[in-house]
Design goal:
Layout: E1 5-14, E2 17-27, E3 32-36, H1 43-50, E4 58-63, E5 66-67, H2 73-83, E6 84-87, H3 99-109, H4 114-127, H5 143-155, E7 161-165, H6 173-189, E8 193-197, H7 201-204, E9 209-214, E10 217-222
The structure holds adenosine-5'-diphosphate (ADP) (2 copies).
Length: 229
């Protein structure tokens, strides 16, 4: 079976500074890949190239048989909305909207009817233990709750690929474990691929496979750390 996502020879510079110097990545449907490495090594740049947010200077990104790097911006943006989900370090929920509305938003933007969107959002909030705070505002949530809401929002529209950039960076280790368990469980259940950028071994321990980025290159195929380290 051909991979869901396949990147080859990715290079990207910001001015004279090379951030990526020839990176290859593959991801199968339902697979969780951790990208680890020190700060400034190029992890976020790689994630943004794989998600079609940045265009690489050289190399290819093939998603589901199509060249993402060659697609017109409009088509790429549409793909990001309909087939990709995103989780960032700080949930980036819309602060003025209740949690329920935040989670329903991708469905509403995707043209679903309000009733169906709210019903689906409720199911996700219940599944992630957030139904008691559904009508609260994001500012009233704990860090862990906000990240669980961000996961619900990233997965509500049924993406095939989820990109997570330091999803637990602002959490204590107990909340981080809960968030990673939920992210991996719900993604596996939906057979979505997940790429998680992290500098924490305990987060990488949830992945099926792990690569280390150092100075813009994949340094070596790293072993997945044992849980609880
Ligand atoms: P992290 O290393 O945790 O991903 P950074 O603080 O390095 O976060 O970067 C945060 C954001 O700023 C990213 O979107 C990154 O692309 C951008 N960024 C990083 N370094 C620079 C820079 N030298 N100039 C402009 N933007 C940058
Ligand atoms: P990481 O995610 O591993 O911390 P990044 O991908 O954010 O690393 O950054 C890799 C390198 O590229 C760093 O030297 C960073 O300063 C630089 N960089 C990232 N984004 C930008 C940007 N938008 N403008 C200029 N430099 C950037």
């Amino acid at each position: 079976m051909s991979p869901l996502l396949h990147a080859h020879g990715l290079r990207k510079s910001f001015g004279p500074t090379p951030a990526l110097r020839g990176v290859d990545v593959q991801l199968k449907a339902g697979e969780v890949l951790a990208v680890i490495g020190p700060s400034g090594s190029g992890k976020s740049t790689l994630l943004h190239c794989l998600a079609g947010i940045l265009t690489p200077d050289a190399g290819e990104v093939t998603y589901d048989g199509s060249r993402l790097d060659l697609m017109p911006d409009k088509r790429r943006a549409q793909l990001r909305r309909t087939e990709f989900g995103f989780v960032f370090q700080f949930g980036q929920l819309v602060p003025e909207l209740p949690v329920l509305e935040n989670v329903a938003l991708p469905l509403l933007l995707g043209g679903h009817k309000r009733r169906a969107a709210v019903d689906t959002a409720w199911r996700w909030l219940t599944r992630l233990g957030l139904d008691p705070v559904a009508y609260g505002l994001p500012g009233e949530l704990s860090g862990g709750q906000a990240q669980r809401a961000a996961i619900a929002r990233a997965l509500v529209a049924g993406p095939r690929l989820v990109f997570a950039d330091e999803p637990t960076g602002a959490l204590d280790s107990v909340a981080a474990d809960t968030v990673m368990e939920l992210l991996v469980d719900v993604a596996k259940a939906a057979r979505a691929g997940v790429i998680v950028v992290t500098h924490e071994a305990r987060v990488a321990a949830y992945a099926d496979r792990c690569i280390t980025v150092r100075d813009g290159r994949v340094a070596y195929p790293a072993a997945v750390p044992a849980r609880g380290t």
